[in-house]
Amino acid sequence: VKIKVTDQKGGVHEIEGTLGWSLMEAVRQANLPMNAECGGCLACATCHVYVDEAFRGAIPEASELEIAMLDMAFDIQDNSRLSCQITLKPELEGLAVTLAPGTD
Amino acid sequence: MTAIQTDVVIIGAGPTGLFAVFELGLLDIKAHIVDILDRPGGQCAELYPEKPIYDIPGLPIVTGQELVDRLMEQIKPFSPTFHLGEMATALTKTEDGKWRLTTDAGTVLEAPVLVVAAGGGSFTPKRPPIPGIEAYEGSSVFYAVRKIENFRGKKVIIAGGGDSALDWTLNLQPVAAGMTLVHHRDGFRAAPDSVNKMRALVENGQMQLHIANVSALHGANGKLEAVTFKTKEKEYDVACDALLPFFGLTMKLGPVADFGLNLHENLIPVDTEKFETSTPSIFAIGDINTYPGKLKLILSGFHEAALMAQQAFRVARPNEKLRFQYTTSSSNLQKKLGVA
């Protein structure tokens, strides 16, 4: 799937994500600045992104653990998610996300 | 301070650093371990103590903490000395060609061999991405409380929703002139008992709770005067002498970056025969090193520790012959392990 990623400095990148992978993996694969320190085990909150409103409905709601982990991220908004918890699927074609401050 | 003399100094008490003690121990090489965390285990203990790991050979399922506990048991016969809660800050060479490592607690260690097993780096508090925050650090912005008295009579703002944030809110509230807790949601992952105590203080008017993000700092010459809170609807300023952000820890390479080890993207290049760095007698094992084909797996760190130990022996015991033995058959090794 194609994903539009806006980085922490405002740069826009069109990247290609693999179905079934997590959004975090796709961002890392594209060598965009994302710490994702714990490698996707929901322990660090350094893969925090803002999800474009149009796609929020297509992504399952955050688990309780993800919500708790978001406490360790900065500048939380309603559309804040941890990208390691978003699995890429066909419905997310064209997904647009912004990498949150403090994740690089 | 007098320097402590040993054979090997290991930076990092994660699984790789711990297993290095074992492999060195079998060769009668003594080790001291330095780690910034206050307990052994590194990422396993800090990031995922309760998460199961499935790819440790021979252990179909083991949690991060269990693995650390087992490694601690395994290296017990070699009684390594731990210097926990200390950051390795400086490395120099002594006149007799040894490495002298100094920590931020003033510990000085001297050894012919240095092993960097620092994983993703030192765990350090996360710094909020608020413009200009660096200018206030140490004077008005603090990531830890050293002395409660320093906050007496101050208008204190604590940011965060975990145990550190809640515990320090409760501990500093009695001495502070004003206490404000700011968190992005009206829910806390901290212990329910602390949350209840905090809510009672808010109800009694003894402190304030704001549901917001901290978006800006105001002050001059490192002295904070106010902090801007941002909600969906508005932005407003709250007077403040001291801000304490508690957003957990992150890994930073830290002073190891200045040890002259030819870093490549914050990793230390090594050979795959001895896992030695570009500086002879300094080794790098585990997640911190890089070489063609490197996989950041705990099991890779174990392998690297075993090979490193062979060369460390040659450096630390230049006049002795290295005898390769198996723990299953060598009564000599079994004696060292305390089983024979």
Short description:
The complex is a heterodimer of chains A (104) and B (340). By secondary structure, chain A is an alpha+beta fold.
Description:
The complex is a heterodimer of chains A (104) and B (340). Chain A has helices at residues 23-29, 53-56, 64-70; strands spanning 2-6, 12-16, 48-51, 80-82, 95-99. The two termini of chain A are 23 Å apart. Chain A is of the alpha+beta class. Chain A is globular. Chain A contains 3 helices and 5 strands, in the order E-E-H-E-H-H-E-E. Chain A has a 5-stranded mixed beta sheet with strand order 2-1-5-3-4. Chain A is 17% helix and 21% strand. In chain A, strand 1 (2-6) and strand 2 (12-16) form a beta hairpin. The longest helix of chain A has 7 residues, at 23-29. Chain B is of the alpha/beta class and 340 residues long. Chain B has helices at 15-26, 42-46, 64-75, 163-172, 192-203, 298-316, 331-336; strands at residues 4-5, 8-11, 31-35, 52-53, 62-63, 81-84, 88-93, 99-103, 108-111, 113-116, 122-125, 155-159, 178-183, 208-211, 213-220, 223-230, 235-239, 242-245, 249-252, 268-269, 282-284, 289-290. In chain B, 22% of the residues lie in helices and 27% in strands. In chain B, helix 4 (163-172) crosses helix 5. In chain B, strands 6-3-2-10-21 form a 5-stranded parallel beta sheet, covered by helices on one side. Chain B has a 4-stranded mixed beta sheet with strand order 1-9-8-7, with no helix packed on it. In chain B, strands 14-13-12-18 form a 4-stranded parallel beta sheet, covered by helices on one side. The longest helix of chain B has 19 residues, at 298-316. Chain B contains 7 helices and 22 strands. The A-B interface holds A 35, 37-38, 41, 43-46, 67-68, 70-76, 78, 101-102 and B 43, 47-48, 51, 120, 126-129, 160-162, 183-185, 187-189, 213, 215, 232, 247-248, 250-251.
